[in-house]
Design goal:
CATH architecture of the largest domain: 3-Layer(aba) Sandwich
Strand order of the largest sheet: 7-6-5-9-8-10
Helix content: 25-40%
Distance between the termini: 40 Å
Shape: elongated
Number of strands: 10
Order of helices and strands: EHEHEHEHEHEHEHEEHEH
Structural class: alpha/beta
Strand content: 15-25%
CATH class of the largest domain: Alpha Beta
CATH superfamily of the largest domain: SPOUT methyltransferase, trefoil knot domain
């Protein structure tokens, strides 16, 4: 995968994912820091023209550096759940195609310690350089699982003991009344159409962010941040609920209201 820009490339270096590094010869403190960091990891930049960088970045603003990095989306849904640091907290992106929204969501995911993001391979911007740049490098640190079918992925999450909470503006349940201390996957739909019907029907519960002003909705990346930080707030204040083995115990958890 190609990423470009100082911050995305530097974070990819820190994550140990850079395979090849190209630079146009920009010489300032930030670039020297990046190149020095690469050198300490045995990676030397290849000097190319600015035109070559522009082509590699597909016209994106590369700031004089482009890198080819290992794909972060080489995990399965089960990997994300079993690899969680504590009680799983996941995101599921249903058809979000705007790379700037995806990048902003990944930035919030990294900031809140999300254990992984599930994306659909056919309709996702999660692997683009534009999303990497919009994430300010967070993409290099967030685990992603690519799936063919989001609805089936939700069924898999349920089988693994994870509650699935879809965000929908018309839902009756306010998001802050959801119990996020249990293993949870927050499901986000694309702006405009929102969650697709099959995906919506597979969610355990639907929740809404109440609007107080004249505008009926907020950007999906903003919504992701709002709900993720509510989950973090709850998990700091209340005991997390898992089984003795670390797997989610769905039989003992109180099922969220529909």
């Amino acid at each position: 995968m190609i990423v470009y820009g100082i911050n995305p490339v530097l974070e990819a270096l820190r994550a140990g994912r850079v395979k090849t590094l190209w630079t146009s010869g920009r010489d300032d403190d930030r670039m020297r820091q990046l190149l020095a960091f690469a050198a300490t990891h045995g990676l030397a930049a290849q000097r190319v023209s600015g035109e070559v960088l522009t082509r590699k970045a597909s016209g994106g603003i590369h700031q004089g550096v482009v890198a080819d990095v290992d794909d972060a989306s080489d995990y399965s849904v089960a990997d994300l759940v079993h690899g969680a640091r504590d009680v799983p907290l996941l995101l599921v992106l249903d058809g979000i195609e705007d790379p700037h929204n995806v990048g902003a969501i990944l930035r919030s995911a990294d900031a809140t310690g999300v254990d992984g993001v599930v994306v659909q391979s056919r309709r996702s911007a999660a692997r683009s350089g534009a999303a990497a740049k919009a994430s300010s490098g967070a993409m290099a640190h967030v685990k992603m699982a690519e799936v063919v079918n989001i609805a089936r992925a939700l069924e898999e999450l349920k089988d693994l003991g994870v509650w699935t909470i879809g965000l929908a503006g018309e839902a009756r349940m306010p998001y802050d009344e959801i119990d996020f201390t249990v293993p949870t996957a927050i499901v986000l739909g694309a702006e405009g159409p929102g969650l697709r019907r099959l995906v919506r029907d597979r969610c355990d519960s639907l929740a809404a962010i109440p609007m107080q002003g004249q505008v009926g909705s907020i950007n999906v990346s903003v919504a992701a941040g709002v709900v993720l930080f509510e989950a973090v707030r709850q998990r700091r204040r209340r005991p997390l609920r898992t089984s003795a083995t670390g797997r989610a115990d769905r039989t003992s958890a109180d099922e969220p209201d529909s």
